[in-house]
Give the backbone structure.
Amino acid sequence: MRVCELRQKEVINICTCKSLGCPIDVDFDCKTGRLTALIVPGGAKFWGCFCRDCEFIIPWECIRQIGTDIILVELQEEKCKKK
């Protein structure tokens, strides 16, 4: 699977049944070449328009399943990290 294919899938938190959006980037370990996290944009600053002020960093261990159109993750707390 390519990173561009991941960006087209919606991320759903199975703990809250809430959509977090679609991944905008990935984090990976340069030494091993393995993905370590998905990065999903957080809430928008101004009525869903303009720029976003934070993002969700979803560790790879929290990903439960990657389907054809969604990614299921298990996050007990949805913490939006400031950029």
Observations:
- The beta strands are 10-13, 18-21, 25-28, 35-41, 44-46, 49-52, 54-59, 63-66, 70-73, 81-82.
